[in-house]
């Protein structure tokens, strides 16, 4: 799924949160629940992308907007040179144009509710290409379940076609631990410079195989929920919970539970049952069976 709507963002530096109007619709939120990922192609401007590349390559001087309490200059340089260069999140240009990017913020607000918690750790995934594909894996800290408390982001500051080995995801594998052989393919998140890819933190993924020569940069970080879920994204007049497409066999129960919980219709969601196809699924909730 792709989205390009943008939002005006209110940023609370003290709480390290932001808020804005949601930009995803019922169908788009459901699509994320079903597939587990969302691509925002080319949403970060070219000047910011170049600053990010220069920063990661050590060609741009640091200019932090604030310094964490207790940090020394030696601490700063140690962190900047590590595989978790959190100092980039102190740069005002990065905060405003990447972390608080309008298109990204609107999507996150739709998925995580009001007062979205901002990243506190960033991981640098820089690969010398060409390189083979990784093994398929779930991140070690993934949590499976019918709730969504975190959304993980990948930021590509450069054009990242298939030849540079973008992250590959296996749609629909965020519900439970899944095994996949190395030769089995998924969906490459190939994208232009300035793209941000969101995915459910538990989705099966890997670095794709690369054939080009050069360095592929990608930054990974997480946003998190601070407020209970509620259906306050863009409501579609024609959207029908009863006939919506929650996925196929072995998937729709989890997707429905996740989406209905999102819509605050799952406060008493106990169990679910379904024996019919896309056009007539019945969901059991709150001790009753019927249209949700």
Short structural summary:
The chain contains six helices and 15 strands. The protein has 292 residues and is an alpha+beta fold.
Quote the distance from N terminus to C terminus.
Answer: 24 Å
Give the CATH topology of the largest domain. Answer: Jelly Rolls
Number of domains: 2
General form: globular
Q: How many DSSP-defined strands?
A: 15
Q: Based on helices, strands and strand pairing, what is the structural class?
A: alpha+beta
- The low-confidence runs, each spanning 5 or more residues with pLDDT under 50, are 266-292
Roughly how many Å is the radius of gyration?
A: 20 Å
Instruction: List the strand order in the largest sheet.
Output: 3-10-7-13-5
CATH C-level category of the largest domain: Mainly Beta
Main β-sheet: number of strands, strand sense, barrel status?
5 strands, antiparallel
Instruction: Let me know the average pLDDT.
Output: 88
Helix-strand topology string:
EEHEHHHHEEEEEEEEEEHEE
Strand content: 15-25%
CATH architecture of the largest domain: Sandwich
CATH superfamily of the largest domain: q2cbj1_9rhob like domain
Q: How would you characterize this protein structure?
A:
The longest helix is centred in the first third of the chain and has 11 residues. The protein contains six helices and 15 strands. It starts with 9 loop residues before the first strand and ends with a strand. The strands form five sheets. The protein has a five-stranded antiparallel beta sheet with strand order 3-10-7-13-5. A three-stranded antiparallel beta sheet has the order 1-2-4. It has a three-stranded antiparallel beta sheet with strand order 9-8-11, with no helix packed on it. It has two domains: 215 residues, q2cbj1_9rhob like domain (Jelly Rolls); 39 residues, no CATH class. Helix 1 crosses helix 6. The protein is an alpha+beta fold. The chain is globular, with a radius of gyration of 20 Å. The C terminus is likely disordered.
